[in-house]
Write a structure and sequence with these properties.
β5 and β6 form a beta hairpin. This protein has two domains: about 30 residues; about 150 residues, Glutaredoxin, CATH 3.40.30. Helices cover about 40% and strands about 15% of the residues. By secondary structure, the protein is an alpha/beta fold.
């Protein structure tokens, strides 16, 4: 009986702690006075030094994109999770490109055949990707962001600072809310 009472007490304390911690955990994502989520500043985003680009006339550099919000996606074309994120990315491109959002797919291959530029071009065509894609065969951008996962989405604010990161599929509503917040912020 004593063990049963201890178990009930422990379960009650656990539930109480969980109930108290839930509002605290959600506090960081609660609406700011401007109506969007509060987004931490993770510091300056590493510059993009990729030399091979698709869907753009010249290489993109974050320094040239000040005043814009940049969504940098770490992806590889044969990753099924990356493929599942594509509809959201294409939707955001369609909805926000004219409002100051620049989407860049940083393609870092996992397998040797993904390093082929012809294979990357075919994938960009097959998936109907309308936004800029940078080839990152040496992993320089991947490493500069200390990235470890496909897909990973980084949101960079108008001042060139990383403000949001999500890994894997999902968190689409949260990501779009962060896009809205960053587009509404004043830039330097």
């Amino acid at each position: 009986m004593k063990r049963f009472l201890v178990l009930i007490w422990f379960s009650g304390v656990t539930c109480l702690l969980a109930a108290c911690a839930a509002p605290l955990a959600g506090a960081a994502a609660m609406d700011a006075p401007t109506g969007g989520p509060l987004l931490k500043d993770y510091g300056p985003a590493p510059e993009l030094n990729n030399t091979v680009w698709l869907n753009v006339d010249q290489p993109l550099h974050l320094a040239d994109l000040r005043g814009k919000v940049v969504l940098l996606e770490m992806w590889t074309f044969d990753c099924v999770n990356c493929q599942h994120v594509l509809p959201a990315l294409k939707g955001w491109y369609q909805k926000y490109a004219g409002k100051g959002l620049v989407i860049i797919g940083n393609h870092t291959p996992e397998f040797s055949y993904e390093a082929s530029l012809d294979n990357l071009k075919a994938a960009v065509t097959r998936f109907e990707i309308p936004y800029a894609v940078a080839q990152d065969n040496d992993g320089a951008t991947w490493k500069a962001y200390d990235n470890r996962y496909w897909p990973a989405l980084y949101l960079i604010d108008k001042n060139g600072h990383i403000r949001y990161l999500t890994i894997g599929e999902g968190a689409y509503a949260e990501t779009e809310a962060a896009i809205d917040t960053l587009l509404a912020e004043a830039g330097s």
